[in-house]
Every structure is written in C-alpha cells, then in structure tokens.
Amino acid sequence: MNSTTAVHTGTRPDTAGRHRSATRRLVASELRLFGRDPLTLTFVLAFPIVSMLVIGGSFGTTPDEVFPVNPAHWYVASYFTVVIGATGLVMLPVHIASYRERGVLRRLTASGFPRWSFALAQLVIGLAAVTVSGAALLSVAAPVYGVPHVDHVARVVLGMAVGAATFVSLGVLLGTVMPSARAAQAVGLLLFFPSFLLGVGGPPPAVMSPALRELAGKLPLAVANDAIREPWLGIGTGTGQLLATAVLGMAAAGLAARRTSL
Amino acid sequence: MTSSTPEPVVRVRGLTKTYGDRVVVDALDLDVRPGEVLGLIGANGAGKTTTVECLQGLRRPDTGTIRVLGMDPLRDAARLRGLVGSQLQDSGLPERMRVHEALSLFSGPRARDGDRLLERFGLAGRRGSAFGGMSGGERQRLFLVLALLNQPRLVILDELTQGLDPAARREVWAAVAQLRNAGTTVLLVTHELDQAELLCDRVVAMRAGRVLDRGTPAELVARHAANATVQFGLPPGPTAESLAALHALPGVHDVVRSGDRVTVHGDRTAIAHTGAWLVTRGRVPADLRVDVPDLEEALLALLEPRTDVREVA
Question: Which chain A residues touch B111 with a CB distance below 8 Å?
Fold first, then answer.
C-alpha cells in the first residue's frame, strides 16, 4: 500500500475566487457545441429558410379568398414557427437522446453538475437556436418578400417567447423519454412534418377539407403559430391560442424538469 | 494521512440492491483504505458496477449503509461528487467536444492544471482534437485525466479497458500504474485479472452480488489457485528412485509420470527445490516448464470449485 492519498504533481493554485459555476460552464459548452451540430445547421437554420423561399413565392403577393393577406407575408409570418417546431420536435430530442445513449448524462451526473443545470442548458440552447435561426429567416425574407408589418408587437413577441419556451420544453421532454437518438429522430420527424404541413408552412386552411382543417387547427404547433401569426398580420388577437400554448408549455416544462434533473 | 489507523475512504455494510426479483448485490461489506488500490473482481453480472453506482449515489440501495469519505452518497451527493473522480462504464463525451473543452467543462474550483495532466498521460498533442476522432486508448486516458482533474480523494475506475485492443489496453494500464505509484486511492472494477494482480494492493472477488473472498492477490492465489507445476523429461537413472526423491522434496504434494515426462505439483517453494534437485543431478532438462498459479486461476477456482484427480506416483 502506498503512503499518500493524492497526486501532487501539476497542481495549480486554487482558482475558486474567479471560477465559473458548473451550470455556467455547462451552458457555455452546450452553446459552443450547438454551433457545430449539423442537424441544427441544416434542419433548424437552412430548412425553414429554403422552404420559406420556395413556398413564399408560389402564390403571388395578392390577397384572395384563400389568403386573407399577401400570401408571401402569410408564409414569412408562419415560418418563424417552423423554426420553433424544428428546434423543439427534432433538434433537442435527438441531441438529448444521443447524450443519454452515449453516457454523457451519466458522466455529468457523476461529475457533480447541479440537478437542474442540464435542463437549464437545454432551455438556453433551444432558445438560442430559435433566436438565431428566426433572425436569419427574417433577414433572408426581408430583401426577397419583405417582412410583413407587425400589427401588435407585444402580442407577437409574447407569442414567439411562449411558443419557443413551450416547444423547447416539449423537446427536452421528448429527448428524455426516447430510448435512442435514432428513435428520437424518427418520432421527432413524425411529429414535425404533419404539424409543419398541415398547421404551419403547408397549404392554407381555406383549401383543406373541413375535417383536415379541423384537425390542423388542433395541432399544438398550429396553435402556437396562430398565437404569433394572427397578431402579426392583424387577422386576430391569438389570445386563446396563446393561453393554450402557455398551458401546454407549463405542463411540458414541469415534466421536462423532473425528467432531466441530474 | 497522519492517523495511524485512518478511517476507510469507503465503508459499506450490508449493501443490498435488487432489480425486480433479482438480487444484484447481496449484503455486501466493503472497505477501501486510504492510499490503496482495491480491485473489485468477478464475472459479468457479479454486481460490481451496481456497487460502484451505489457508492456514487447514482443508485439507491434497498438496504445497508454506505459512507464515502464519511458522507452519504445520496444525501451528500453535491459535496461528495467533487471529491470523487470516476470513470463510469458506458459513459462518454459529446463527439464534437474537443479535449481542451472537456477539461474546461469538468474543471471545478479545485482543478489542477489540465495541460500538465494531458502531458502526463500522453495527450498533450491531442488538446485540440475532437473526442469523436480519438482512438479507444486515447479516450480512456482522457477519462483518466478527467477523473483526476479535480484532485479527487477517491478515484473509481469501472471496466476501464472494455472494448480496447491489446495495445490500447497496455496504454491504459500503464496510466493506472502511474496512479498507483502516486499513492492515489483507487477502486478498480475489472475482469482483467492479470492487471488486477499487478496493480491492486487488495482484491475483493464477487459472484452473484456476494463477496466470495478478499485479500491480497497473493493471499487469494495461495488459498484458491491450483498447485504450481514443474514439468520436464525424465532424467537418466532409476525412475522409481527419482520419483521418490522428488516426492520427498519440501513443498511437493505429488509427482505424476506420463510416458517419459514428469510433472511435479506443489506450492511455490516446490519450484525452487525441484530446480535445485535437477541441478544436483548434473543436468537441467532443456524441456523444463514451470507453471505458476495466478489470480485468474484462483478466481476460476473460486467461481467453479473443482476436485482435481491425479495419478499419484
């Protein structure tokens, strides 16, 4: 048996006085890695922009019996929610499930990261993804179709914030219940595309059959979209949809926080 | 450590853990003393990993008490985890995380200079490499660096070399030998018994959640391994007299003749006495072969008790 209990070589002075907290270190690390994730760059950043450019130019710029406003503006206002859906339903579930699959979460737990640090880090990167990709989307839309006038700024900002927080929470929850990254990707895409096509970025509700329109109107992503699009384009207040999204968000956040405590 | 009878770093009494109807750890007692390398050995399913997960507060025991550095791993998890460095089985890092970023992420307030640790474990040149691009041996050495980064008072290493090729295993075991030489308290979970024998001060052998035996590797070998054997071609001279003389040597238990070959069974001292006897006969056989029992043999004997049947001379 040896006589000492610690290795003394290579030790530097204690830096506790200026040491970053474990949560801050984890958030900083996650933000750094977020920028390197190809799924984020393609699906959250590029896909909404490309889709918006294609479909935004497909129906002209004149309102008619199908589009209550300029069709291009209808889609520009809608595609911010596509970013929210791609982040919450695909990016985060795959990211978190892959961490659990590879034992990253076990390592974080055993290394003493605070209980809620991982959930907080995911909230930050989810909101960062929505902010950066949403800003990129509007920056690309501006010179091509123009960014539609915001009829009620506070309601739109609130709708965006609540929608983003709700779907980030849903994404974290999904990521914690999926057994693997592949399963998360499969389920995430299965949830995302019907919501995207029926409720947000696909054909306008006016051309759908009554049954399909009824179904589309109840999809959570479509509800969140209405909470943003209606006050943006001045075609409604979106109050009911905002409240419904907030209730869903609170439930998802509560469950996600319980599931992600390290 | 200044006390003459220091408290164990780890003290476990009556630890029991079940999954459904299956008892995985059954009334386990375990002590890890300061400065020692303790090997927890046993076949898959012996309950080793569950035990160390309970020690780290990652699983809640059904019954029993656990104290690590005097603390309860569940109640005092936040304090304790900063004092224990661990390499958990099946744990990893994000593929795109670079080595220096991992050091930054896992550096707590007590962290030592990560670059010096990288240098010590041969990873200085990989500082900017992504985890996903590293070899298996490099990854495990990085895990060792991370386990040591915050100057832990206890290091837990669970199946450190699982899935590695022989060259990578050698790299990793050399790194563990460095810990041992530096006096770090290590709980080593492994099924690589040759390395356990080389590196561990004491070993605890487990099967089906229970401790089969514990002691130094030499003690376990002495208690459970088969005899040492010395084999050689029959020397010239009267056969019966030679066999009788060999049988009379100190430490020899029996002598078996098979054709023109002789096998001497006995404890380790029998090896020296047989060699001396051969030398006094004037000619050391060129086909001399000596087999010394090791920890692997002892563990096999422990796991599968058997009765040796020999033709006694």
Answer: 12, 15
